Amino acid sequence: MFSFKSLDSDLAKSLSCPGAPTFIEVQLxxxxxxxxxxxxxxxxxxxVLPAKYQQFADKVRNFEVYEDDVWIITFPxxxxxxxxxxxxxxxxxxxxxxxxxxxxxxxxxxxxIGCIAHNLPVDxxxxxxxxxxxxxxxxxxxxxxxxKQLWTVKPKLVYVSRNPKDVAVSYLHHYQMxxxxxxxxxxxxxGLLTDKIVYCPQISHALDFWRLxxxxxxxxxxxxxxxxxxxxxLERVCxxxxxxxxxxQLDELVYHLSFDQMKKNPATNNVDMVAGAMQMNGxxxxxxxxxxxxxxxxxxxxxxxxTIANFDKFIERELIxxxxxxxx
Length: 328
Ligand code: A3P
What we know:
Number of strands: 8
Number of domains: 1
Bound molecules: adenosine-3'-5'-diphosphate
């Protein structure tokens, strides 16, 4: 069903880190079941993942999907955690009591983390499978690698995109501190621009889901929309879930989901997850917060003018032929 190719270029070797020592490209070969109903052809691109994933690719593809599942799918660093908390609360009648008591990572499970994280012996597929229904499941996998039943069972699926330049900065910090990368910033950015970082290619990740954005079971959001006007996004999310809340309830939810509140909230700020990963990947005790800046345009402070221009060219080239544009 899949083919696997080891990545062993000098660049790939330089991107090795304790959390992901070696990489493969995973290519879906079986195109008999297409997620698309538009009649157009589909040529999924291979996805870069830690080599560990090879043992799990078929299991993920055959993961059983239920109609009442809720799937939150993003490229890394697009505001996944923020969206998970928003969606979980909207879908659970604003049950703040459970949301504060039970860590978000247990309410909304990261499907493939045990299949990619080098030192983490967790069976995340079983954890996701055994969640109480309605199951909330998060994944960063591209469309081609996700469970094929998603396209026949059609559960609710929320996709979030974010401008690749801000993703680059956020992912760089994540890669350094959570995955223990000690290579250069330049190599990491070159890795993104040549689609050699874990979960790349980044732009076709969004484009595949954009092609599905008019499907009834798909809600396509952007980080920037959430940041600019969360209240309006919440109304769309409530509509998608068939929920109605009062203005006061929505105001309270906007407050709960604000960067400052989520940063203070131990159920959402990922302090324990980050401490564990930093310990495992050789960064114990260093200064890093998962809830880092939470801004639009942070790339302007961290990327050179030349790198920004290179990203702009990369994005323009990859979007040729599509009506999709990243939010700014
Ligand atoms: P920065 O690193 O730019 O600060 P993910 O959950 O997909 O890993 O995304 C993490 C990014 O989302 C981080 O971006 C984080 O700060 C940001 N984020 C998390 N919660 C947020 C919130 N409530 N408001 C704004 N940004 C948030």
